[in-house]
Amino acid sequence: TKITEYFNQAKGKTLFSLEIIPPMKGSNFGDLMQNIEPLMEFNPPFIEVTYHREEYITKEVNGETKRIPIRKRPGTLGICAAIMQKFKVEAVPHVICGGFTKEETEDFLIDLHYLGIENILALRGDQEKGETHFIPKSGGHAFANELVEQISAMNQGKLLYEETESFPTNFCVGVAGYPEKHFEAISLEEDLQNLKRKVDAGADYIVTQMFFDNRKYFDFVDKCRAIGINVPIIPGLKPLSTARQLQILPEIFFLDIPEDLQKAVKACTAPEQIKQVGIEWTIAQGRELMQAGVPALHFYTMSKSDNVQAIAKSLF
Ligand code: FAD
């Protein structure tokens, strides 16, 4: 079932959804499944699974220094299959441009179709470690809108080197949106025009980067609507859980953490208190977003569930 179909069926009721990250090098898969299990009580219609590009390590092989590609978090596809089997929910794999040729992407999309996957989050991906900016693989896509175009073309029967009357895929495509602007874009306005390219290429819904100030989300939605982006915009939420995140989240994701939240975290004297502050802040955010009628609250779980469970208990 398409994600957008779930939104239509919900008739204005806000749904609960989550994102998980494949474990490091295949470790603790059982823990991941155990962590998700308690969240099933809140009936997520879909679970998103991130995709991680290759990184490189240098290693001495027979006296020569070699650059060897490794994938630190493999298994996106396998985890999707396991989730669908065990929890009977839609698994939404993230598909990235970085590190793939268009031909490799086509093969990957066909594999997704064979597995019964109907929804995809289409992303560009970040630059490789050590690179100053994103460089596509030779013969690969440079921006997410090109990946969306490839998926839309496939849905219409157009493969890279073949046209058929009808090809059996009918993927529903999500894309990323940034209420506080993507870090490379010169302005939010320019970034929104690029977001529109993705929607014009066929994206069916948008999932936002995390934000801690709902005003940012509401303004973003208003600006999207003003330029003709009319698809559902799912707010992404992450409960803050450590003091260190006050520094690293803005560094990694280029976002602001409101003064009041910073103050509340800094006033804590124990880690458990910080977690509680994060839970309460996210509950307040969630409550206001639900009142505004958002289609879903999408939680970045970092593959842990206790704080998200506490939040969902209070909201759903
Ligand atoms: P794009 O939409 O291609 O945008 C990238 C930049 O280029 C923006 O500044 C945009 O304004 C500009 N731009 C876009 N199109 C054009 C164009 N045609 N011409 C000129 N400029 C253009 N990363 C992962 O590696 N794996 C994941 O699983 C993953 N999941 C994510 C999930 C969500 C919900 C979000 C918000 C991000 C996720 N990311 C993930 C991170 C994402 O890959 C990075 O933020 C990346 O830098 C941008 O990806 P994008 O798809 O938004 O890129």
From TrEMBL:
Task: Supply the Pfam families for this chain.
Answer: MTHFR
Q: Does the keyword Flavoprotein apply?
A: yes
Q: Which cofactor does it need?
A: FAD
- Pathway, per UniProt? One-carbon metabolism; tetrahydrofolate interconversion; Amino-acid biosynthesis; L-methionine biosynthesis via de novo pathway
CDD domains recorded for this chain?
Answer: MTHFR
Biological process, per Gene Ontology: methionine biosynthetic process; tetrahydrofolate interconversion
EC number(s) per entry: 1.5.1.54
Q: Name one GO molecular function term.
A: methylenetetrahydrofolate reductase (NADH) activity
Keywords carried by this UniProt record: Amino-acid biosynthesis, FAD, Flavoprotein, Methionine biosynthesis, NAD, Oxidoreductase
Source domain of life is: Bacteria
Catalysis performed (reactions): (6S)-5-methyl-5,6,7,8-tetrahydrofolate + NAD(+) = (6R)-5,10-methylene-5,6,7,8-tetrahydrofolate + NADH + H(+)
Q: Name one GO cellular component term.
A: cytosol
Q: Which family does it belong to?
A: Belongs to the methylenetetrahydrofolate reductase family.
Record's protein name: Methylenetetrahydrofolate reductase
**Source organism:** Sandaracinomonas limnophila
Organism lineage string: Bacteria, Pseudomonadati, Bacteroidota, Cytophagia, Cytophagales
